[in-house]
Specification:
By secondary structure, the chain is of the alpha/beta class. The chain has a single domain, classed as TIM Barrel, CATH 3.20.20.100. It is 42% helix and 16% strand. The protein is built from 14 helices and 12 strands. It has helices spanning 32-35, 41-52, 69-81, 105-119, 137-141, 146-155, 169-177, 198-206, 221-224, 239-255, 259-268, 283-294, 299-307, 322-329, and strands at 8-10, 17-19, 21-24, 58-60, 89-94, 124-130, 159-166, 183-187, 210-214, 231-232, 235-236, 275-279. Strand 8 (183-187), helix 8 (198-206) and strand 9 (210-214) form a beta-alpha-beta unit. The longest helix is centred in the last third of the chain and has 17 residues, at 239-255.
Length: 330
């Protein structure tokens, strides 16, 4: 089923037409501290060749992924094929300086300049404010700060649309309410295990924004299973969460279906979500993802999986800083 075309959806008010699946570029730069393995450049570029010649028409990366190595490898692959394929959308993100924590307007401009150089592009259709929880809402929204710089870059024609990509859900909601953003990206907070970002999806939809959901497998456990992985969102998963995932595995086994396919389609099947980001590290994983998207999952199974989801009291906080960031947002 890898040859099946993916549906395209209009990304909110941006007018960009994106596929329901988006190739995640975080792993492409090799991030062993996050993913647990190195990814050689030739393997990453092989994955990119498969992406660019296949039905996926959307790719997400960031200036901070492996200090630009993800963008550099993407740029090499684009150069090899003669540029961005027609209709393909590439998104990237501005990051704080990891050494100084600087997330000023000047830092945003430096990020974009390097992104354009590494990608070999003169314009990026979608550029996000990335992980602003590290510096705080007030800092990024201050005069001359990161958000003001992104708006200026849009008016200058260097980027097409402005997004915000973050973890803490209440902080994301606060950014959405500013009206400064065209697209929101949430990660690890809208999965079969944790639907805490649901109100963010509602808020963004009400405002006509584009909605992108990343990490539908919670860092891998919903694809690999509890026998192979015991972390959720790169942290040890609570026993209550592991037990619920094991229950979900049993539900899928009884129905003769695949938990990974169900986890993916939980996101791709949600009408509020325009595209779902999955990190892809090899041609084989690209093809496997397309197969998951095409695997039939009975509605009764999705209902049973929803009933097995952990309650709010035992929901896994994806990162240690979530509670602090959400408290600040409130």
């Amino acid at each position: 089923m890898t040859g099946e075309l993916l549906p395209r959806r209009t990304l909110g008010r941006t007018g960009l037409r994106v596929t329901s699946l988006c190739a995640g570029g975080s792993v492409l730069g090799s991030m062993p501290g996050v993913f647990g393995y190195d990814l050689p450049a030739d393997r990453a570029i092989a994955a990119l060749r498969e992406i660019f010649r296949g039905p996926i028409g959307f790719l997400d990366t960031a200036s901070g992924y492996s200090d630009g190595e993800s963008e550099r490898r993407i740029g090499l692959a684009l150069n090899e094929i003669g540029g961005v394929p027609d209709g393909f959308v590439i998104a990237s993100k501005a990051d704080r300086d990891p050494q100084t924590n600087d997330f000023s307007g000047d830092q945003v401009r430096r990020c974009l300049e390097r992104s354009l150089t590494l990608l070999g592009m003169d314009h990026i259709p979608l550029y996000y404010l990335h992980d602003p929880e590290h510096v705080g809402f007030e800092t990024t929204m201050a005069p001359g700060g990161a958000v003001e710089a992104l708006a200026a870059l849009k008016s200058e024609g260097l980027i097409g649309h402005v997004g915000v990509a973050a973890g803490p859900v209440d902080l994301l909601a606060r950014y959405i309410r500013t009206g400064a953003f065209d697209v929101v990206l949430t990660h690890n907070r809208y999965t079969l295990v944790d639907d805490s970002a649901s109100h963010v999806l509602d808020l963004a939809t009400e405002r006509g924004m584009g909605v992108v959901n990343a990490a539908p497998f919670g860092g891998g456990i919903l694809a690999k299973g509890t026998a192979r992985q015991t972390t959720y969102a790169y942290r040890p998963a609570p026993r209550s969460v592991l037990d619920r995932i094991a229950e979900m595995e049993a539900i899928c086994a009884r129905a003769g279906t695949d938990l990974a396919a169900a986890a993916l389609q939980f996101s791709t099947g949600d009408e509020r979500i325009h595209s779902t980001v999955v990190s892809l590290s090899s041609p084989e994983r690209v093809r496997a993802l397309l197969d998951m998207a095409a695997t039939p999952v009975p509605e009764v199974v999705m209902q049973q999986l929803s009933a097995a989801r952990p309650g709010a009291a035992s929901r896994p906080p994806a990162y240690p800083g979530d509670r602090r960031a959400d408290e600040e947002a409130g």
